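Quick one: structure tokens for this chain, please?
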Amino acid sequence: MSLLCSVFSGAVFALDSSEARVSVGWSPNILYRGINATANVLFINDSPEEITIYYFGLHFDWMESDNFIGYDLSNEPVTIASSEGTTFTPVPIQVPLNATIGPHTYFVGIDGVKGESADFIWNSTIFTKNILNSAQEVYDNLVSQVDIEISKAVDANYQSPEAQSYLTKAETAHSNALNFADDQELDQAISLLQSASFYIGQAENLEQNYVPPKNDDDNQNNQDLLILVIALVAFMVVIVLVIYLTRKGKQTPPMEQPTET
């Protein structure tokens, strides 16, 4: 099979619009200027006869009127029984860098034979796909990243006042970025999101190195404990001294009384 980028072969009959249908899936689903994407085409035969397909492709509104991108199946035609369907080989699509931002139309074209000899061409209904600015892709990825970073930071419940301050800065930058994105000022939005991510990183570092100060209650408790220890030591010293003096008194021999002559 080869990629087809030209008009389909000549055909003299048309397949009725109600005798076939297609659905198109995209990977990725969101398309940007210059992106390489893949279109997956499912074709369903709703006619009472089998259909043999020799060419299929997609036509976009940025193409010349008689151009399609798809595959030449003439060497290995695909036959589809009535009420059956098939998924074609995925079609690689590159959105032009100069494609206009906004909705674009496209349709699927089929060239084949209905039954044994009725050549036909068939075009699907018109589909619409939105093309976004390439900066939109950067913004979308960055806003998802910053959403997660801020959520984790909030859940961490920072104790450092400086870390809390940087988290507030990040939340403010994130909020402003969303406002700029709503106005399609994506460069400003991206810059603010990058700042928000930087602030979150700073907050994390400050929180990791934060040493909570001892409060007055802790100081008072420490003082009370110190007094108690000193008192206990003094008491023990007194007890030892009393015991020592008591024992010393018992060990002193009695004095001899002088005798009269």
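The longest helix spans residues 216-251.
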